Amino acid sequence: EVQLQASGGGLVQPGGSLRLSCAASGFTFNDYTIAWFRQDPGKEREPIVCISNKDGTTYYKASVKGRFTISSDNAKNTVSLQMYNLEPEDTAVYYCNAKGRLREFWGQGTLVTVSS
Hints:
Blueprint: E1 3-7, E2 10-12, E3 18-25, E4 33-39, E5 46-52, E6 58-60, E7 68-73, E8 78-83, E9 92-99, E10 104-106, E11 110-114
Parallel strand pairs: 2-11
Antiparallel strand pairs: 1-3, 3-8, 4-5, 4-9, 5-6, 7-8, 9-10, 9-11
């Protein structure tokens, strides 16, 4: 059974930090690109960062570059998203996504709320 388990969301003040984790099982983790998407109510889900488990290549959306860092532990089948200097605009439900050559999986969302 394929599982992507996202965790680590919560309430944080502006300027604060959070670390999200995505634990994967049921597929060959090293063959997939893992991405974090986020979705505000009434808006489309958008990709913000991803990492290729094949070669370590990363991509960051401009609005999070320099504040967010993605990392992958292939031995533990886990991808982490370290978020610094959070802004109210970062408030959203965050989803992890695994995309391979033929298959794509989604985890459940985890809510991040940035508010004073």
